[in-house]
UniProtKB/TrEMBL annotation:
<dbReference type="InterPro" id="IPR036291">
    <property type="entry name" value="NAD(P)-bd_dom_sf"/>
</dbReference>
<protein>
    <submittedName>
        <fullName>Ornithine cyclodeaminase family protein</fullName>
    </submittedName>
</protein>
<dbReference type="InterPro" id="IPR023401">
    <property type="entry name" value="ODC_N"/>
</dbReference>
<dbReference type="InterPro" id="IPR003462">
    <property type="entry name" value="ODC_Mu_crystall"/>
</dbReference>
<dbReference type="Pfam" id="PF02423">
    <property type="entry name" value="OCD_Mu_crystall"/>
</dbReference>
């Protein structure tokens, strides 16, 4: 085997700015990537954590993201999620490249979220603010990535943050000094009422806010947790919102935000939430007087599109 090209974290970040990632993801969905055909993620125990394997198939490339999840690492000053992405030729199944995996995840998750939010804004029943006010729950690496993606999708947006750790909020504020980001933890209810876009990127196990407070025109995205026992929003929001998910099968299987509001019959009905492919293909409509809610758990096809884009653009 010849030496495989390796794309380290800095190279991945340079090669995949958020606008490029959002465009690639939307193009992939329009061109035939079907989220409902994505394989399930594979979990296996690891010392003080777990292994996470995410395989995906495509016409030209296929891939496997191999990660470790170490919940104790942040307290040791280390990354919670680490790993690699291996890209293969779909024709020969020969490996063609290796990419640093955590940086890929740090880009693709915000890119998918803001691609969905931007499409939901474009089909809003009334004109959506060109410079929306954005409220972010969470102050970790995904919060920073989602703010960066927000500025790519909505360059004039203003941003406030609610988080648990003052030092992390300070780090987010220092990352974006031009935005004047406020810590809204002391007036969270008012912040929720005021927001045009609410981004939830936490490890919460219970709802972060009262869904009845969300304005009718708002867009909420919750992408911080996976697992039916974990959630960031309540049923009050879910039951009053137009819902879009990455894929129906993955959402029914893994999305705790929807676990109690939608049963098996609801997922099988014609009124089941629409998926991202249907959203980008213009097959989703918004209902006047209802907020929009997007929720994702992270899927393998998203990593494949992003890794393929990095490799193809470099080649």
């Amino acid at each position: 085997m010849t030496t495989l090209p390796y794309f380290d974290a800095a190279t991945v970040r340079r090669a995949l700015p958020f606008e490029r990632a959002m465009t690639a993801i939307a193009d992939g969905l329009r061109d035939g990537i079907d989220p409902e055909l994505d394989g399930p993620r594979l979990f296996s125990p690891a010392p003080d954590g777990e292994f996470l394997l995410m395989p995906a198939q495509g016409a030209e490339f296929s891939g496997l993201k191999a990660l470790t999840v170490a919940p104790q690492n942040p307290d040791r000053g280390l990354e919670k999620i680490q790993g690699l992405y291996i890209l293969y030729s779909s024709d020969t199944l020969s490996p063609v490249a290796v990419l640093e995996g955590a940086s890929l995840t740090a880009i693709r998750t915000p890119a998918v979220t803001l691609m969905a939010v931007r499409h939901l804004a474009e089909i809003a029943p009334a004109p959506f603010p060109a410079e929306p006010h954005v409220l972010v729950f969470g102050a970790g690496i995904q919060a920073i990535g989602h703010i960066q993606a927000t500025l790519a999708a909505f360059p004039g947006a203003s941003v406030d943050v609610i988080g648990r750790r003052p030092e992390r909020i300070a780090a987010v504020q220092s990352e974006f000094p031009q935005l004047g980001i406020r810590d809204r933890g002391d007036d969270a209810d008012a912040a929720v009422r005021e927001a045009d876009i609410i981004l939830c990127v936490t490890s919460a196990s219970t709802p972060l806010f009262d869904g009845a407070l969300v304005r009718d025109s708002a867009i909420v995205a919750a992408v911080g947790t996976h697992g039916r026992e974990l959630r960031e929003v309540d049923d009050a929001l879910v039951t009053r919102a137009d819902i879009v998910v990455e894929g129906r099968a993955s959402a029914e299987r893994e999305n705790g935000n929807l676990a109690t509001a939608l049963d098996a019959a609801a997922w099988a009905a014609e009124t089941a939430p629409r998926n991202l492919q249907e959203l980008v293909r213009g097959e989703v409509t918004r209902t006047p007087g209802r907020p929009a809610f997007y929720s994702g758990v992270g899927m393998s096809w998203e990593d494949l599109i992003c890794a393929s884009t990095v490799f193809s653009d470099a080649r």
